[in-house]
């Protein structure tokens, strides 16, 4: 998975984060939209993938960070 992400143009850091996440390799599309999740759920997801500065982010900022990381 890591190599495929690198081939798609992802940075090494982002490719590593995605490939090492516990959800990697699962297909779905069944998760709720970020806007429908609580700030705590968004924070936990940001923590899981290693987004820095998450503790000071608003819900809107967490959503943006998750979408761009």
UniProtKB/TrEMBL annotation:
Residues 1-10 have a biased composition (Basic and acidic residues). GO terms for biological process: DNA-templated transcription termination. Residues 1-35 are annotated as: Disordered. SUPFAM superfamilies: Rho N-terminal domain-like. InterPro entries: DUF7218 (IPR055642), Rho-like_N (IPR011112), Rho_N_sf (IPR036269). Residues 35-66 form the Rho termination factor-like N-terminal domain. Pfam families: DUF7218, Rho_N. Gene3D superfamilies: 1.10.720.10. This is Rho termination factor. The lineage of its organism: Bacteria, Pseudomonadati, Bacteroidota, Bacteroidia, Marinilabiliales.
């Amino acid at each position: 998975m890591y190599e495929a992400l690198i081939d798609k143009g992802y940075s090494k850091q982002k490719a590593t984060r995605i490939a090492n996440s516990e959800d990697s390799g699962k297909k779905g599309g069944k998760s709720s939209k970020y806007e429908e999740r609580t700030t705590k759920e968004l924070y936990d997801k940001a923590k899981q993938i290693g987004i820095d500065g998450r503790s000071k982010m608003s819900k809107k900022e967490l959503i943006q960070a998750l979408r761009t990381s």
